[in-house]
Amino acid sequence: MVDYTFIRKDVIKRQTVIEGILEVQSPLRIGVGKFGGMDPASIARDTVLKDAEGTPIIPGSSWKGVFRSEGERVLKRRNLITCSGVGRDYCLNNFRKYDDFQRSLRENYIEDALKTFWNYTCLNCKLFGTMSVIGAVKFLESRAIEFKLGTRTMVAISRTEGAAARGALVQVEFVEPGSKFTFKIIGNNLPNYAIGYLLTIMKNIHDGFVQIGGHKSRGFGLVKFVNLRFLDKGEKKIGDEDIPVSMQDEIKEDGDKFFEKMKPFMEAFNNAKIPYPVH
Ligand SMILES: [Zn+2]
After folding, report:
1. Ion ligand 1, residue ranges at CB < 5 A
2. d(Cα 264, Cα 247) in Å, to the nearest integer?
3. Ligand 1 center to residue 22 CA distance, Å?
4. What is the pLDDT of residue 146?
5. Of the candidates 55, 69, 172, 247, which lies 20 to 30 Å from 235 by C-alpha distance?
6. Are 133 and 110 in contact (CB under 8 A)?
């Protein structure tokens, strides 16, 4: 019998929280995403996403996108099969198992549904979710706790026409370097190697290999974790393929030291024999 705890939503045997403070290192732009149709004769303003009180935010969905796409690179480097999760490129569809899976769910064959989902989805689908299945990790919205806003005038790219609208300038608002944001992810039933995988992605962000938000080619979107906290409750090994990791239940450290201490999880990811997707 395969241990499906990692993908089960009906029991919580382990809860893992990673949270901390993020410091912006280069201009950061999480846009509102709707500046098509502006008047080419005037200077338009493209503002950053803010909450009702005017505080810049990074939505959980943006984090999920960043983790998923960087994760895809990390998994491919380990020669593991994965999907982008974009459009029709998701594992259940790629393995032609989506209909089987839906039928098992509809007819209440839960064990069959678990088996199909286990065998025919990648680590990204299991962690971040896929069509009609929520992921094992939840990304909370990041809120600025200290911030300054800046603007830069740029040539606008019309999203509707896909070309630079001649002469149209846009005032692009961004969050200034030095600004700080909250960061928090909550994972349920995560194997040690999945925790290590998330930490690997976070370290790549921290080390400047991954940018977040818009205008990456202009060097925007570099961030660092200035302090982090790991909090782990429940079982310490999830699933047959998991690798034991000896770690305290709570770790609080500043950025670099935190990733140093969490190395055993990242090693578990590097060494785990991940048995899915089967092919
Ligand atoms: Zn997948």
Report:
1. 83, 91, 122, 124-125
2. 8
3. 28
4. 97
5. 69
6. no
What stretches of 78-175 show up as alpha helix (H) in DSSP? 91-94, 98-106, 110-119, 123-128
CB count within 10 Å of CB 50 equals 18
* 68-83 tens-digit pLDDT: 999 999 999 999 999 9
The residue ranges of DSSP E strands in 125-163, in sequence order, are: 129-130, 133-134, 137-139, 142-146, 149-157
User: Residue 82 C-alpha to ligand 1 middle, in angstroms?
Assistant: 5
Secondary structure in 3-state letters for 13-58: CEEEEEEEEEEECCCECCECCCCCCCCCCCCEEECECECCCCCEEE
Tokens coding 181: 């944001």
CA 235 / ligand 1 centre spacing (Å)? 26
From the list 254, 61, 49, the residue with the least C-alpha distance to 149 is: 49
> Does 158 have pLDDT greater than 80?
no
Q: Can you say how many angstroms the Cα of residue 71 is from the centroid of all Cα atoms in its chain? A: 8
Ligand 1 centre distance from Cα of residue 279 (Å): 13
Give the tokens for residue 8. 């089960």
Cα distance between residue 69 and residue 205, in whole Å: 12
> Angle between the 110-119 and 98-106 helix axes, to the nearest 10 degrees?
160
